[in-house]
Amino acid sequence: MDLGLKDQVAIVTGGSRGIGRAAAEAFLREGARVMISSIHPESVETALKALRGLGEVEGSAGDVALEADVTRLVDETVRRFGRLDVMVANAGIAGEEINLADMGVEEWDRMMAIHLRGTFLCGREAARAMRKTGNRGRIVTVGSVAGIESDASGGHYNAAKAGIHSLTRSMAVDFARWNIRVNCIAPGWVRTDMTVGYIPPPGRPLENCGVMDRPGEPGEIANAILFLASDSCSFLTGETLVVDGGQVIVGPDVSQSVQRA
Predict the structure, then answer these.
(1) CA dist 172 to 132, 169, 243, Å?
(2) Which of 27, 120, 157, 175 is catalytic?
(3) 21: number of Cβ within 10 Å
(4) Which of 29, 56, 64, 132 to pair with 21, CA 20 to 30 A apart?
């Protein structure tokens, strides 16, 4: 099926590893031109070496929590590729597990800055670039089932991801006048280097991961991101698509009983 992404220009923040890296690969395989970003310059260079064999890809280092860095990322993309069609606001951090009663302001503020302010800045700058050219734009944000459920000792992460879900709806309303669709992907447990400390290695059970009794793989989330950025959902905006192997629909008690059955 033709997703309509050939020769389209996409930015993937946090695109040097994990879900972002898988998303960049997926866009390149569809013939899109891709700009990846990461806060770590060496991570960008490593990813580019692996991705360049798949298609036209460039990279830029920067912090999505900094307005100047996000503006520069979008400007650089438009300068190199001529336009911007898709923004995937994926960059994020896991953070430490801390009870809210013991959490410092620094931990809270950093989580909000990367996830919530970063998503706002990426969405704002993408919309500004897209409305100048008048082309149909698509913005995909990355939330989490943690923004729907409430994990213990992860209140800052839960709140930031829930904020992204709400921000997505607001951007969809505000940007619709320029033919820009905005949707959110909400993964459950996914096996990446960021979750390696939380997810057991393959072959060992993972509690509370849903009815499918396993964590997701980055490529499975990337496929859903690709769908939201494609012509296949041209009448979809302001939605949060949960991709979690049934984690949310059954809750922890049922998912544990499925694993024991």
Answers:
(1) 17, 5, 20
(2) 157
(3) 26
(4) 132
Say if CB 48 and CB 36 are below 8 A apart: yes
Residues 143 and 165 sit within 8 Å (Cβ to Cβ): yes
**CATH hierarchy code of domain 9-260:** 3.40.50.720
Highest mean pLDDT: which range of 59-68, 134-143, 148-157, 185-194 = 59-68
Model-wide pTM > 0.85 = yes
With cut-offs at 50, 70 and 90, classify the pLDDT of residue 205: low
Give the tokens for residue 119. Answer: 């998503």
For residue 147, give the nearest of 97, 188, 110, 105 by alpha carbon: 188
For the chain, count helices (H), then strands (E).
Answer: 8, 7
- Residue 157 a catalytic site member: yes
How many CB atoms neighbour CB 249 within 10 A? 12
Residue 253 structure tokens: 């008690």
Mean pLDDT of the 127-152 span? 91
Instruction: Report the alpha-carbon angle 3-228-15, nearest 5.
Output: 95
What percentage of the chain carries pLDDT values higher than 70?
Answer: 90
Contact 45, 59 (CB under 8 A): yes
